[in-house]
Amino acid sequence: MSSLLRLSVLAAVAPIGIEALFLGGGLTILSRNKLDATGAQNDGTAAILVSQPSPFSAAKTACALLGEVPWNPDTAKFTAALNASLAYQVYQGIASADQLYWVAKADDEGDSCRGIDATGAEYDVDCLTENPALCTQSAPVSTSSFANNSLSWQVSHFVGNKQLAGYRDYHTWKFRGLAYAEPPERFGYSKVASFDDAGEVDATNAGPDCTQPVGEVKNTSLMSENCLFINVWTPYLPRTGGDKAKAHLKPVMLYLYGGGLTSGSGRNPNTDGTNLASRGDVVVVSANYRVGSLGFLNLNDGVHRGNYAVSDMVAALEWVHKYIADLGGDPSRVTLFGESAGAQSTHVLLGVPKAKGLFHRAIMQSSPDGYPSGGKVLQYGYYDSLEHNFATTTRRVLRDAGCANATDAVACLGRLSGYDLVNLTTNANGIVADGTYLLNHELVVNDTSASVATGVAMMVGFNRDETGVLIDNYPSNGTSLAAYFDAEVARHFSMPANAAAILGLPGSNSSNASAASFLGASAPATPAAVFDAAMRIATAAVFNCYGLAVAWSGAKHGAFASSYVYQFNRTYQTTGYTRPWCVPPANGAGPEQDEYKKCHAGEQMVVFGTVARAGHPDRDGRDFPFMGLVVDHWAAFARAADPNPDPRALAVRGHWDSLARLAAPGFGRWDPVDPAAPTLRLLQWESRQIPFVDQDVCKALGAAMDVFG
């Protein structure tokens, strides 16, 4: 079959109901993504690479089927972006240096055809020669508030035997609302969905969010108990049924959202995967999982044992392992990552035997590993027993639901809608050692033989002042540290009411002198000093100490393939989740010159490269290039289990700002944790390695880095 006939047949096979174009794949979006405001409009410099070699007439037809025309070097500037994109194809080994690509004829009425190579050199080429093609890319740039998924930009693509209708914007192909699991039974483990049977899937819109109290998701019509959907952003669609050579496939980054395990959304615009996929050259996946009592209520009846959300996460990993190659992802390079409760979930999955081998790197951003429980000021992530969890949490849910004396708790709870269930006074969110997904009561990091994550490269980190955004009120004049800590910090985190006395904080009239080692001889006297001390203690207790201990012990005992640690000292707080002290002064010198608190969630938009996408400005001329550097770090870790980007790749792709930072004096390399002299990466404009932070605080709290041995 000729290439022209093949393309025509492929374009015609779409059954009724799927109107989107089907070209058989082999499509790569070539765009330069600087993550800044200059990319807010399509500037005509991008292209779509159709990798199937064909004569020029078929190439022109392929472009037309995309609603495009052959890319024209006479009207678009090759060196604006395409030079870097084609050089990167050569760098990856996907194309040879002398590969020619069809572009528009120099004379549309003439008999001669034109090709260009990766340097932009033009050649007269026999029109019957078979070459890949470069088509224009006229899809609009999407933003946090705008996306165009109309038929003009839709594309049909096969995953398994399902024909999906997705769409493209300027930077990526998007497939949203893919059911990775069968519709879940309430209080049942999820089962991975099969895409092996023929069928059609509209993947142009995200699926409903999991049922939760109104908060991050404000519209109840967007919620459902049938919510196990993923969204995929990819720069590359492989040929259907064709070559899926490893060199062509991209690293995969599967994101789990935060929200305290009681809320969250895979469609949060702050964590949209467009820019991370495009700039990072990775396939980004976000997965919904059940939250609150619908995700965690343990009935301790031998069948309904909680951890339903954990089963969702494992099912998402199983789906990715089986099908992500069809969307351009490499199933042997899957990074599981999340923020806050998503990081906590990643921590959990590092100890789940059913997840072993389904992911190969893990990034835990701001995991609350020391969140207080059991009457303690801090408590390492402990997976409760079924019996204790039932007695302390489930009984309260049953009481609130009017089911305390029901002989069939499932049937009784079934009278409540999912929304009513998660809005009871008690909303379960505790992870348990259920004997199916979790066999231990905590993640084992000091015994290689007991670890199920020895093949996983691990990164853990936090923002300098995590708890700043979680505290409502600033201290007033004359307030002691003890009084402020008990009234604001202990209350918010459900610490014991006398937490300040337990810690021996100044003003608590306690004989415990543990605080002296990190507060100095004199008590904080000003509101600013009281606030700083309280935030430092709380951030160390809830977020830092146990994360550092996991990294240190894991490195010492080989529980992970490698361990990397970071601390953000430059953040960009998300709108609607902030405090006045979490942002730099409005008329100040800038985020590195003026002191402000680097609060929880302040790294979200930085990691996903969505600051400009959300319409926010660059505060000092460094926000956007710093964001690019962080994306390059995260993508490098996903690519090779090492957060240090390859300088050659940065140069080839034209990421000059990141390349300049890597070469800056004192910048150095991001080193893995060395148990003999552990360091972390301080992420700021002048990034550098520094010793583990807050060890004086952590030691006083009984959670120094060697707490696990």
From TrEMBL:
Keywords attached to this entry: Hydrolase
Domain of life: Eukaryota
A Pfam family the protein falls into: COesterase
Residue stretches in coiled coil: none
Domain Carboxylesterase type B: 163-658
Gene3D superfamilies associated with the record: alpha/beta hydrolase
GO molecular function terms listed in the Swiss-Prot or TrEMBL record: hydrolase activity
Transmembrane segments: none
Keyword Signal listed: no
InterPro entries membership: AB_hydrolase_fold (IPR029058), CarbesteraseB (IPR002018)
Keyword Hydrolase among record annotations: yes
PANTHER family for the chain: CARBOXYLIC ESTER HYDROLASE, PUTATIVE (AFU_ORTHOLOGUE AFUA_3G09070)-RELATED
Protein name as catalogued: Alpha/Beta hydrolase protein
